[in-house]
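$ run holo --ligand "1-deoxynojirimycin" --emit tokens
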Amino acid sequence: MAEKNLTFPKDFHWGTATAAHQIEGGNTNSDWWRLEHTPGGGTAESSGDACDSWNRYEEDIAIVASLGMNAYRFSVEWARIEPAEGEFSKVALDHYRDVLFACRNQGILPVVTMHHFTLPQWVQDAGGFESPNIVSWMARYAGVVGEALGDLIGVACTINEPNIVAITGFLMGMFPPQVQSWDRFSAVNTTMRACHVAIRDALRAGPGSFPIGIALSMQEWEAVDGAEDSVASMREEMEDLYLRAAQEDDFIGVQCYTKMQIGPHGMVPPPPDQMLDMGYYYWPQCVEHTVRRASDVAKVPVIVTENGIGTTNDQQRIEYLEEAISGLHRAISDGVEVHGYFQWSLLDNFEWLHGYRLKFGIVEVDRETFERTPKPSAHWYGELARTGVLKTA
Ligand code: NOJ
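-- output --
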């Protein structure tokens, strides 16, 4: 078959994504750090020094630029910015200003996430997402960050995967605070949407003018053996309530990795030959599916704020990305308004409960020296970003 060139829009954001706790290191004031040091807490290991990106961010951003991307998504860490209630760290805010400058100086659009999974310990101690104060704390935090950084922000994501924080923390009992209750899960989803609005409005009121949206985890859902009703209620709670609320936003951030099959007894594991290290179904088609669905329901432009694969086989990563991004191109060709794509992740980093075993990075990080080495997939993706053309076989 002849090689086909799939051309993307000229002003498309091509980037890669990271999160503070997963790459910075030493996030000692967060609830996750405490979990990692609680016997029986469930994490494979401590995040420790992570990728030392707190010190090496300039090198990270230089890699992003030299590979050919034009955007970089990272998060600012609440536990560093507000280590105690109402006490804001000038040093942390200045640090993130430097990170934003480093992006701007290298022609990289900074996409800033305000909350990516972690809470300051004082917030968790006071009830976390179940505290009656959480919305006002988030609003105050966002106001301070917006005031300090807003003039340099390119795009803002308010909350990363609020629905995953809710389901893993309050229904599955895995993430802090490790609760198992549908009612509390559902209540936290409602709170998350209020937090999102509070952050969005605080940022809108501050300096700078940039698109703001939420970064939602989405799946391609499939009902097995008559579990249509379970799928429908799960999809409503996990996605559609958020997507409908996003009609007031500037964009909807879509994050997807896989297909989720649900049967009468819950989640059905993928067939062994299609199961990835993370337990995910190998399903790159999910990008096209979720982007179309997000656009249909939210009716605002889409940014794929995360997509990728955890694998030690880098050739498999290239194949996955090629298929995922081809599907994205089909959606765009059919008129879906998509403004960007962010591969997860720049670096092999701390994959939450799994620790460092899972490899989502296009750049390898030596765990002793922190030396960064781009993999073949980094060069493959860099060429796509530089040219805006996906060459498929
Ligand atoms: C979603 C999360 O935002 C990110 O933190 C995580 O590492 C990736 N998915 C891969 O699981």
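-- notes --
The pocket of 1-deoxynojirimycin is lined by residues 19, 22, 160-161, 255, 306, 344, 351, 360 (CB under 6 Å).
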